[in-house]
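Exercise 3.2. Students should predict the tertiary structure of the chain below and write it as structure tokens, then compare their answer with the key that follows.

Predict this chain's 3D structure.
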Amino acid sequence: MKKKFLTGFAALSALALFAAGCGSDSGSGGGSGGGDIKVGFAQTGSESGWRSANTENMKKAFSKEKGFDLVFNAADNDPAAQIAAVRSFINQGVDAIVVAPIVEDGWDDVLQEAKDADIPVVLEDRTVSSADDLFASWVGDDFEKEGETAGQWAADNFGDTPTKMVVLEGTTGSAPANDRAAGFDKAISGTQIQKIDSQTGEFTRDGGKKVMEGFLQKYGVDGIDLVFAHNDDMALGAIEAIEAAGGKPGEDIKIVSIDAVHDGLQALIDGKINFIVECNPLLGDYAADLVKKVLDGTDVQKQNYAEDGSFTKEQASDVIDSRPY
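Answer key:
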């Protein structure tokens, strides 16, 4: 799927006006008789604080109280297990399927199976490379723009000075890893920022720590000026590694990250991270509204973006106490 998403989150907010009741033309049961809408949700896993907030929000949005019968599966970042979970949802005859794809590729067959079974699929958070007609809609964050915002901050602050940068990548093959890297690289193009190394930390704190330890062994604290972490958890792991090596994160080695979860913002306030771009995990109500609307037969936009902000130390101090995640 191309990344030319056209709509903003403001447009999607109109979906909140859609009534809770709906009828399903899928013939798959749960939502067609006025009862709960049976939805299978295939989550990536529980790799980060962002993911935990996203899962909690999705479960709340697809709760019994809101008219849903949720079948939940977290695949522990195993693409094969996630595809197997989707096939299980199809076999159970759910009314709709929601997927946060671990990786972009490899979805054609199972999405075609869902389509053949007249079960609509809504993508949440991440995207796939499959043809657009294999899924009903997508809602999530603009990963490439997030990367570009982080890269622009780096370019503005370090672009005129020789700067050695290492990158803590997200899960290889995932949309956020691919798009954040592309956006960041675009923003720093033509600057004096040099990417000296890049490796996946799988979006986990432990993974970020281990990769950063390797970078520090290879280059030393003095040989790295900047870290770009594809998410806060890896940045927090990098902080641990830098401190263990005798360095001062945020001073000796600057850090820019993406997510803006509570622990990341606290590290920003503490001066251990220098800039954070937000990635909104609270997508549940929007995904649920899309499911209702699709089952009702109402046309929906194919791609829908959430709005993301960005934070300096001062801005983080102003909002951290009111953050829901």
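Discussion points: Residues 143-158 form the longest helix (16 residues). The CA atoms of residues 209 and 238 lie 5 Å apart.
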